Hints:
The longest helix is centred in the C-terminal third of the chain and has 17 residues, at 434-450. The protein is of the alpha/beta class. The protein has helices at 10-22, 44-48, 63-69, 134-144, 157-168, 189-201, 299-312, 343-348, 398-409, 414-419, 434-450; strands at 2-6, 27-32, 72-75, 77-83, 88-93, 99-103, 106-109, 113-115, 128-130, 149-153, 172-176, 205-207, 212-218, 223-228, 232-235, 237-240, 244-246, 276-278, 285-287, 292-294, 327-331, 334-340, 353-361, 372-380, 386-393.
Amino acid sequence: MKVLIIGSTHAGVAATQQILKEHPETDVTIYERHDNVSFLSCGVSLYLGGQVKRLEDMFYSSPEELTSMGANVKTNNDVLKIDSDANTVTVENLLTKQVFTDHYDKLIMATGSYVSVPPLFGIDNSRVLLCKDYAQAQAIFETAKHNHHITIIGGGYVGVELAESYARTNHEVTLIQGNKQLLNNYVDQDLSNRVTELLENQGVHIYLNERAKAFYNDEATSQIKIETSGESHTADLVIVATGFLANTSLLRDQVYMDRTGALLVNEYMQTSNPDIYTTGDASSVHFNPTGQSAYMPLATNAVRQGVLAGRNIFGNIQKYIGTQSTSAMQIFDYTLASSGLNLNQAQKAGLNADSVTYDGFYRPEYMPSTEKIKIVLVYDKDTRRVLGAQLFSKHEIAQSANTISVIIQNQNTIDDLAYIDMLFQPNYDYPFNYLNLVAQMAIDKESNTNS
Length: 451
């Protein structure tokens, strides 16, 4: 079988490794427009903040490694066209400018995503940068050496992580968010306020409900001027981090897509064309809390889907069980983690949802030390199913988000979570773990509501 894989970040690398592990005889060719593979873009903020010393350490594979496994790796080769009727692709070698055609038996679309940039005047200004790939990360790092005041457009994960990294390295930072809160896709207002407070305590200037409109060079100050829906700001450098969109134009009008452009798949990562599979940021996901398809560009989804696509091109072998969109970030010694829906999202999805908040210590106060932990648990009042949770603490609570992910995956209720068996040892928790306790709060709230 001849397999073409377009793209080689998380999804493409995972698919390649899986294919050649199980079927080393497969003819696998990777087409990648850049000169590198497997760049871990979520590590950019770690590099900017000094936690990671070499940007090159953010590569977890290489063309040489994939070649040694048996892949034909063609970096600096840009796929210009896909003909899904003829099972061919048209490719340009970016070094020689040669254009040629290749054919496939199966195609894996792992083209990832691109920064979703609003139609802003001056977006091509040399002082306005995007943050996604290796070259962009290099440019951001180099320009930050010579620019003190940095403005970030976008208050999602990338924007908040960049703001923290620059604040840690003694830059003046402005963060502009078009929404009424930071991290609105992950947490509800209360925890967003905690993150905002943390950033402001470190000197970050935050402007909410402001949308960037244009960028101009300010000749008087040699800075860049940012016009927004609220007011004007100036900075030495601007980084746009306004989210991502699926990079799927090569298959437009050839396979089914959702309204965002993400490729729709069945439970075997197969598109509406039986010879084309997709994975990672190019693909939609099955979001278990709602039971609907959604677009959620996360590395975790990319790796899992890549492995499944690599298995399922040989037949319907292993089903994709969906995602809870579980994620976490560290911000000034605190961990913020989430899984599933926040309350605002649940109610927008038409669910009869409610939430409770646990705000206490993670282990007894008689221990030599302890830390406060806040958990927001979201649940369906009709079915009592757990829909999501958000956790915030200096204590390590990221693995608790993984537990919530399994709870949502298995459609457990607040009654299940309240009494599920968890260890007790004063070093770690109370006789009831804090996840038990927050679920018991939900049960009490429903009992009082119905009494």
